Amino acid sequence: RLGGLHVLPIITLTASHDTNIFLEPENEIDDNILSARGDLDFVLPMEDFFLKFGGWAEAVRYSDTDTQDREDWNVHASFGAEFPGGLNFMVGDRYSQLWLDPSDQIGRGEEYLLNELFVELGYSIQDRARIVAEYFNNLYEYDVSTDRDRQENVVTGTFYWRFQPKTSALAEVSYGDFAY
User: Is the overall model pTM greater than 0.85, yes or no?
Assistant: First the structure.
C-alpha cells in the first residue's frame, strides 16, 4: 500500500516440456519452454468507486526452436462504482500485443494486437442473487494475416442464485456479432 493506493505485484516463472509444440501428426518436435511474467496492478479505492490500472509483460523462450520465442504485453484500466442497494457498474479497456501459439496452424508465431472494451452493469441482492449484463467490443488486428482481422460485439446476460450455502444455480446467455 502506498497511502490509499493498493499496489499488487505478481511474478510468475514457468518451466515446461512439450513433446509436440506444433501439434503435428508426424515429425513431432519437442522442446523445453521457459516463461517469465510480471504483473503490476494499481487499485485506488474510493468510497463507492474504484479505479484500477496496470499491465503485464511475459517473455517465452524455447530452448531449441527459438523462432517461436515471443514477448507478449498488456495494459489495462477500469473504473467501477458500487451504489447503495446492490447496483454496480464497471467500464474498462484492455490493450494487448500477443503472438499466436505455435500450434495455430494458420498463423503460427504471428503477432497481433487486441483491444478489448467492456461495460458491465450488475445488481446484487445481498449474497443470495446477482444479475449481470455485459457488453464486449473486441478488435483483433493481425500483423500478416489481415484476412483474420475482426471486430467482435458480444452481449452477455448472467443470473446467479444461491439456494443454500453449497447449492447454487448459474445461467448465462451470450449473443455475438463477428465482422471480418
Answer: no
